[in-house]
Protein backbone atom coordinates (compact mmCIF):
# COMPACT_ATOMS: atom_id res chain seq x y z
CA UNK A 1 0.00 0.00 0.00
CA UNK A 2 1.39 3.41 -1.05
CA UNK A 3 0.81 6.29 1.37
CA UNK A 4 0.16 9.69 -0.23
CA UNK A 5 -0.22 13.09 1.44
CA UNK A 6 -1.73 16.15 -0.23
CA UNK A 7 -1.07 19.52 1.42
CA UNK A 8 -2.60 22.77 0.15
CA UNK A 9 -4.23 25.71 1.92
CA UNK A 10 -6.56 26.29 -1.03
CA UNK A 11 -9.45 23.90 -0.32
CA UNK A 12 -10.56 23.93 -3.95
CA UNK A 13 -7.13 22.82 -5.16
CA UNK A 14 -6.79 20.39 -2.24
CA UNK A 15 -10.08 18.68 -3.00
CA UNK A 16 -9.42 18.67 -6.75
CA UNK A 17 -6.00 17.06 -6.29
CA UNK A 18 -7.42 14.51 -3.84
CA UNK A 19 -10.20 13.61 -6.27
CA UNK A 20 -7.69 13.10 -9.10
CA UNK A 21 -5.28 11.01 -6.99
CA UNK A 22 -8.20 8.97 -5.66
CA UNK A 23 -9.04 8.06 -9.27
CA UNK A 24 -5.59 6.58 -9.93
CA UNK A 25 -6.11 2.87 -10.64
CA UNK A 26 -2.61 1.45 -11.22
CA UNK A 27 -1.80 1.07 -7.53
CA UNK A 28 -3.67 1.00 -4.23
CA UNK A 29 -3.15 4.35 -2.53
CA UNK A 30 -3.96 5.54 0.98
CA UNK A 31 -4.55 9.31 0.81
CA UNK A 32 -4.48 11.89 3.60
CA UNK A 33 -5.19 15.60 3.06
CA UNK A 34 -3.79 18.55 5.01
CA UNK A 35 -4.74 22.25 4.89
CA UNK A 36 -1.36 23.61 6.03
CA UNK A 37 2.29 22.76 6.45
CA UNK A 38 1.85 22.91 10.22
CA UNK A 39 -0.95 20.33 10.06
CA UNK A 40 1.15 17.99 7.92
CA UNK A 41 4.18 18.28 10.21
CA UNK A 42 2.10 17.78 13.35
CA UNK A 43 0.84 14.41 12.08
CA UNK A 44 3.41 11.86 13.22
CA UNK A 45 3.37 9.87 9.99
CA UNK A 46 5.68 9.23 7.04
CA UNK A 47 4.58 9.02 3.42
CA UNK A 48 5.82 7.59 0.15
CA UNK A 49 4.64 10.58 -1.92
CA UNK A 50 3.70 14.13 -0.90
CA UNK A 51 1.92 16.65 -3.14
CA UNK A 52 2.94 19.93 -1.53
CA UNK A 53 1.78 23.47 -2.30
CA UNK A 54 4.68 25.94 -2.32
CA UNK A 55 2.81 29.17 -1.60
CA UNK A 56 0.93 28.58 1.66
CA UNK A 57 0.22 30.84 4.60
CA UNK A 58 2.18 30.08 7.76
CA UNK A 59 4.96 27.61 6.97
CA UNK A 60 5.28 27.56 3.18
CA UNK A 61 5.99 24.47 1.12
CA UNK A 62 9.74 25.04 0.90
CA UNK A 63 10.17 25.29 4.68
CA UNK A 64 7.81 22.36 5.24
CA UNK A 65 9.87 20.21 2.87
CA UNK A 66 13.13 21.20 4.60
CA UNK A 67 11.75 20.00 7.94
CA UNK A 68 10.48 16.76 6.39
CA UNK A 69 13.88 16.12 4.81
CA UNK A 70 15.50 16.13 8.26
CA UNK A 71 13.81 12.83 9.09
CA UNK A 72 12.81 11.44 5.70
CA UNK A 73 15.25 11.41 2.79
CA UNK A 74 13.27 9.05 0.57
CA UNK A 75 9.77 10.52 0.30
CA UNK A 76 8.97 11.79 -3.21
CA UNK A 77 7.99 15.46 -2.89
CA UNK A 78 5.95 16.83 -5.80
CA UNK A 79 5.44 20.57 -5.58
CA UNK A 80 2.20 22.24 -6.64
CA UNK A 81 2.86 25.83 -7.69
CA UNK A 82 1.47 28.86 -9.51
CA UNK A 83 4.87 29.52 -11.05
CA UNK A 84 6.93 27.97 -13.81
CA UNK A 85 10.26 29.30 -12.49
CA UNK A 86 11.03 26.92 -9.65
CA UNK A 87 14.64 25.81 -10.13
CA UNK A 88 15.86 27.57 -6.97
CA UNK A 89 13.32 25.59 -4.94
CA UNK A 90 15.26 22.40 -5.65
CA UNK A 91 18.04 23.42 -3.24
CA UNK A 92 18.04 21.42 -0.05
CA UNK A 93 14.79 19.47 -0.54
CA UNK A 94 15.47 17.22 -3.55
CA UNK A 95 12.07 17.79 -5.12
CA UNK A 96 10.96 14.92 -7.34
CA UNK A 97 8.65 16.92 -9.59
CA UNK A 98 6.41 19.95 -10.08
CA UNK A 99 2.79 20.54 -11.07
CA UNK A 100 1.61 23.97 -12.20
CA UNK A 101 -1.87 25.07 -11.12
CA UNK A 102 -4.54 24.36 -12.12
CA UNK A 103 -3.57 20.70 -11.68
CA UNK A 104 -4.17 18.48 -14.70
CA UNK A 105 -5.31 14.87 -14.29
CA UNK A 106 -2.90 13.46 -16.88
CA UNK A 107 0.06 15.33 -15.35
CA UNK A 108 -0.82 14.11 -11.85
CA UNK A 109 -1.02 10.54 -13.11
CA UNK A 110 2.26 10.95 -14.96
CA UNK A 111 3.93 12.15 -11.75
CA UNK A 112 2.49 9.17 -9.87
CA UNK A 113 3.70 6.78 -12.57
CA UNK A 114 7.19 8.27 -12.40
CA UNK A 115 7.32 8.31 -8.60
CA UNK A 116 6.21 4.69 -8.30
CA UNK A 117 8.71 3.67 -10.97
CA UNK A 118 11.58 5.30 -9.09
CA UNK A 119 10.40 3.85 -5.78
CA UNK A 120 10.80 0.38 -7.25
CA UNK A 121 14.38 1.27 -8.18
CA UNK A 122 15.19 3.00 -4.87
CA UNK A 123 17.75 0.60 -3.44
CA UNK A 124 20.91 1.58 -1.64
CA UNK A 125 23.84 2.13 -3.98
CA UNK A 126 26.78 0.84 -1.98
CA UNK A 127 30.41 1.49 -2.84
CA UNK A 128 33.52 0.06 -1.19
CA UNK A 129 36.37 2.11 0.26
CA UNK A 130 39.67 1.02 1.79
CA UNK A 131 39.94 2.74 5.16
CA UNK A 132 42.08 2.54 8.28
CA UNK A 133 39.50 0.08 9.68
CA UNK A 134 39.62 -2.08 6.57
CA UNK A 135 37.13 -2.28 3.69
CA UNK A 136 33.82 -0.50 4.36
CA UNK A 137 30.69 -0.37 2.20
CA UNK A 138 28.84 2.97 2.26
CA UNK A 139 25.54 4.11 0.74
CA UNK A 140 26.45 6.96 -1.62
CA UNK A 141 23.63 9.20 -0.37
CA UNK A 142 25.07 9.04 3.16
CA UNK A 143 28.36 10.64 2.11
CA UNK A 144 28.62 14.42 2.58
CA UNK A 145 32.16 15.06 1.37
CA UNK A 146 35.83 14.02 1.38
CA UNK A 147 38.40 16.37 2.89
CA UNK A 148 42.18 16.30 2.67
CA UNK A 149 43.81 17.46 5.89
CA UNK A 150 47.02 16.60 7.76
CA UNK A 151 48.19 14.28 4.96
CA UNK A 152 45.08 12.12 5.08
CA UNK A 153 41.63 12.05 3.44
CA UNK A 154 38.60 12.05 5.74
CA UNK A 155 35.24 10.83 4.40
CA UNK A 156 32.43 12.64 6.22
CA UNK A 157 29.19 10.61 6.33
CA UNK A 158 25.85 10.73 8.14
CA UNK A 159 26.93 8.02 10.57
CA UNK A 160 30.67 8.48 11.16
CA UNK A 161 33.94 9.65 9.64
CA UNK A 162 36.39 7.33 7.89
CA UNK A 163 40.02 7.82 6.90
CA UNK A 164 40.45 6.83 3.24
CA UNK A 165 43.70 5.46 1.86
CA UNK A 166 43.61 7.31 -1.46
CA UNK A 167 44.71 10.65 -2.89
CA UNK A 168 42.02 13.35 -2.88
CA UNK A 169 42.57 13.89 -6.62
CA UNK A 170 42.02 10.18 -7.35
CA UNK A 171 38.84 10.21 -5.25
CA UNK A 172 37.62 13.25 -7.18
CA UNK A 173 38.12 11.45 -10.48
CA UNK A 174 36.62 8.16 -9.28
CA UNK A 175 33.51 9.77 -7.71
CA UNK A 176 32.70 12.06 -10.64
CA UNK A 177 30.37 9.49 -12.18
CA UNK A 178 28.41 9.28 -8.91
CA UNK A 179 27.54 13.00 -8.78
CA UNK A 180 30.54 14.28 -6.81
CA UNK A 181 32.60 17.37 -7.71
CA UNK A 182 35.76 19.08 -6.46
CA UNK A 183 34.95 22.69 -5.48
CA UNK A 184 38.40 23.06 -3.94
CA UNK A 185 41.70 21.19 -4.18
CA UNK A 186 41.14 19.74 -0.68
CA UNK A 187 37.46 18.73 -1.01
CA UNK A 188 35.21 16.40 -3.01
CA UNK A 189 31.50 17.00 -2.29
CA UNK A 190 28.38 14.95 -2.89
CA UNK A 191 26.00 17.16 -4.89
CA UNK A 192 23.08 15.17 -3.50
CA UNK A 193 23.84 16.62 -0.07
CA UNK A 194 24.46 20.25 -1.10
CA UNK A 195 21.90 22.55 0.54
CA UNK A 196 22.90 25.87 -1.05
CA UNK A 197 25.79 27.93 -2.40
CA UNK A 198 26.36 31.49 -1.21
CA UNK A 199 29.36 33.37 -2.55
CA UNK A 200 32.34 31.08 -2.03
CA UNK A 201 30.70 28.92 0.65
CA UNK A 202 28.93 25.61 0.02
CA UNK A 203 26.38 24.77 2.70
CA UNK A 204 25.89 21.03 3.18
CA UNK A 205 22.82 19.23 4.52
CA UNK A 206 24.59 18.45 7.81
CA UNK A 207 25.19 22.15 8.48
CA UNK A 208 28.88 22.12 7.56
CA UNK A 209 30.39 24.67 5.17
CA UNK A 210 32.80 23.64 2.41
CA UNK A 211 34.96 26.30 0.67
CA UNK A 212 34.50 27.00 -3.04
CA UNK A 213 37.67 28.21 -4.68
CA UNK A 214 37.45 31.12 -7.09
CA UNK A 215 39.30 29.09 -9.72
CA UNK A 216 36.75 26.25 -9.60
CA UNK A 217 33.64 28.38 -8.96
CA UNK A 218 32.24 28.52 -12.51
CA UNK A 219 32.87 24.84 -13.21
CA UNK A 220 31.33 23.76 -9.90
CA UNK A 221 28.23 25.97 -10.26
CA UNK A 222 27.65 24.73 -13.81
CA UNK A 223 28.01 21.12 -12.65
CA UNK A 224 25.59 21.70 -9.77
CA UNK A 225 23.03 23.31 -12.09
CA UNK A 226 23.21 20.34 -14.45
CA UNK A 227 22.81 17.95 -11.52
CA UNK A 228 19.80 19.85 -10.16
CA UNK A 229 18.08 20.09 -13.55
CA UNK A 230 18.62 16.37 -14.12
CA UNK A 231 17.01 15.54 -10.77
CA UNK A 232 14.09 17.90 -11.39
CA UNK A 233 13.57 16.19 -14.73
CA UNK A 234 12.99 12.86 -12.98
CA UNK A 235 9.40 14.00 -12.72
CA UNK A 236 9.10 15.06 -16.32
CA UNK A 237 8.60 13.20 -19.58
CA UNK A 238 11.95 14.30 -20.94
CA UNK A 239 14.51 13.49 -18.23
CA UNK A 240 17.48 14.63 -20.29
CA UNK A 241 16.37 18.22 -20.84
CA UNK A 242 18.13 20.74 -18.57
From TrEMBL:
The keyword Phosphoprotein applies. InterPro entries: CheY-like_superfamily, LytR-like, LytTR_DNA-bd_dom, Sig_transdc_resp-reg_receiver. Residues 127-226 form the HTH LytTR-type domain. Keywords: DNA-binding, Phosphoprotein. The modification 4-aspartylphosphate is found at residue 53. It comes from the Bacteria. Residues 3-116 form the Response regulatory domain. May play the central regulatory role in sporulation. It may be an element of the effector pathway responsible for the activation of sporulation genes in response to nutritional stress. Spo0A may act in concert with spo0H (a sigma factor) to control the expression of some genes that are critical to the sporulation process. GO terms for molecular function: DNA binding; phosphorelay response regulator activity. This is Stage 0 sporulation protein A homolog. PANTHER family: STAGE 0 SPORULATION PROTEIN A HOMOLOG, TRANSCRIPTIONAL REGULATOR-RELATED. It comes from Romboutsia weinsteinii. Pfam families: LytTR, Response_reg.
Amino acid sequence: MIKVAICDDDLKILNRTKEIVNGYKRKDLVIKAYKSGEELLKDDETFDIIFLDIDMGGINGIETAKIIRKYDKKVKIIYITNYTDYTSSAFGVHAFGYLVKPVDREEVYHQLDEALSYMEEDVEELIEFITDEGVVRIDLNKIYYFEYQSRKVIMKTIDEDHIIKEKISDIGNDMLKYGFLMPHKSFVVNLYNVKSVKGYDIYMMDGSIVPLSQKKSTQFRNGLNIYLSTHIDKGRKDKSHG
